[in-house]
User: Fold this.
Amino acid sequence: MYLLLNENDLCVYYDFDKNPGIKAKGRFVSERFAYLEDEATIKKLVQFSNGSQTNVTFSLPQMHCSSCIFLLENLHRINPGVIKSQTNFQRKEVFIIFDPHQISLRKVVELLAFIGYEPNISLKDTVSKRTSTFNRQRIYKIGVAGFCFANIMMLSFPEYFSSGNIEQNGLKETFTWLNLGLSLPVLFYSASGFFVSAWKGLRQQFLNIDAPIALAIVVTYARSYYEIITGTGAGYLDSGTGIVFFMLIGRWFQDKTYDSFSFDRDYLSYFPLGVSIIKDGIEKNIPVTQLQKGNRIIIRNEEMIPADAILLSGNANVDYSFVSGENTPVQKQPGQLIYAGGKQIGSVIELEVAGEASQSYITQLWNNDVFHNKKNGEKSFIHPWSRYFTLALFAVAATTLVFWLINDTSKILPAVSSVLIVACPCSLLLSATFTYGNMLRLFGKNKLYLKNASVMESLAKIDTIVFDKTGTITQNQTSLVSYEGTPLTDKELVAVRNVARQSSHPLSKIIAVWLQTGDDKIIPVDQFNEYTGKGLQAIVNGIDVKMGSASFMHQFNPGFASYDTGSHVHVMMNNVHMGRFNVSNQYRPGVEQLVDELKNKGLVLSVLSGDNDAERDNLKKIFGAAADLNFNQTPQQKLDFIEALQKDKKNVLMLGDGLNDAGALMQSNVGIAVSDNTAQFSPACDAILAGENVQLLEKFIAFAKSGKTIVTASFILSILYNIAGLSFAVQGILSPMVAAILMPASSISIVLLVTALSSISARAKGL
Assistant:
């Protein structure tokens, strides 16, 4: 790595951080990326290619510091075939432009892998491109509206300060016509989204919140244009452009909070793109999409099995936790079927494909209709309010019309139009967008990333919570180990540790690590034998050591009897049973306190686990003796359990972490994926929660409930502003200056109010 950087004058890489970047792997299987020479695969991965340059974006979960950014953005100095490389640190992505005549896509990926940033390429990358959530049109509309609003306000100052009596001839007319010209881009471009949304709602016979906003914009501009053209006034174009500008800012702020997270995933997101096959005695790499029944494939340590296959050779130790939730890897014998989605842990294995990747067991998780239904589609409580508000507005306008029709017909136009202008429900929309936008930001600050504001409203209605066990309330890659039985001497402990370290079985590894001391000497192990799925046997320092299951112990000591239900490793010394090591899950800190808090709030709690019931007693201590605990649950059973609760009119929150939870997460009213790496993994879900903050769940729910209260308070303030404005409007004496002051003042004060209240509420809830 140093030689590579030194050759290209990039040693400043080491100056950015004390621990810059990551270790360069420097070598890999030469044919590992051969599938990237397949034209069909290349076309599906690249975003643009015109013969002289090719654009491609890769996901790099390893990117974590300024050194990473420096190195990745200087790829052109390492290989001149790379024209440009630009990182997106928030998304953990790198965008690369390269010359295909000088360097191929395969060589680009090999270069990234060589310097330690192997791209995370999955099968889904060839099926659908990730669509960017960045909306340039929205930014342009905000920019146009802001520019026009500021200039119209500036050109209106002479009108305000002179009370409409500008002495310089022609100056007033010039300013008003300039305002009219500046207002046109705002009306026909920036405000177009409100008109489209209102029209769609009306076509579906639904009066959404954009309808009265669109009406207020039309009335404001129509009256303003009438006054300017007829020479009877300066209009209200400052207020009209202000309405549009503040609305666009509010919606952009809300969407910006969560646009960097991927919530919708399926099994294709987790499958490898390439796989090694053996054909005619030669190993080569092909795209997973080209796998066929009968192909012989090679799977190495930590690689996922892409299709249901039969084990031909090797020591298969398959981790199914991603699919079934079972925490303990399963050992397989040659001739046995291994399902897709399992991950090999240990040495290389050879398999024969029993079916295409698209026909594997794991794809059944996505055959359920629940994955094709839209969630959180119900309308916000804001929308009924907007209908009532609109009806009340029309009632006031109609009353004003009747009153002046009887008393003074000359006041009809100014009074009725003023009512429609000043009573615009923009403040109501601002209340919701800025409240939820700031709350989404505060949720994100505490590492709960919600998909949208409607998820927040659904979270506030939750009355039932269902927990997955493995990886959700327990910690990944962490186990508790204890020993019970005849105390072992130091010599015997050394013997057990050295026998356990010979095996690749997860339980053996856990015990070997647990028995480590500051001075671990490697002792020669003689006559070592491993009986797959049963146990180990070896001689260390003259001691005959046997480790394994109860049934394995029974083979050597028929008098030994034990009925194990969990993860236990028995130890026998010279055919004498000494005791057993108990391996159990490590629960996340604060889980017991969280359960107590949720139960005190009256929430109903359940546990669904794909694992065995070895943790039943521990879970009863946490959730109570009468807790609803369910073990050995398949993905379909989890989904059915959630559906049954919903049929009983329950609003269900599901917390899970693996593919086996995806159906339940989608079926639930709110599905939260718990992950220890939010940038890298999450099944299909409504929210992503960092595992370290699971204990804050009760606070999150309480904070979500405060959202409606905050919106209600700001709505009341909005109503007070409307009452003040209507008191002038119904009399037909609402001047442009009053409108220009009142409407921005109401918008700004509401934004400040909801921001302050939501921040105060978060602190009060302990967030």
User: Anything to note?
Assistant: The radius of gyration is 33 Å. The chain has five domains: 2-126, 136-257+382-436+705-764, 272-305+307-359, 447-475+587-704, 476-586.
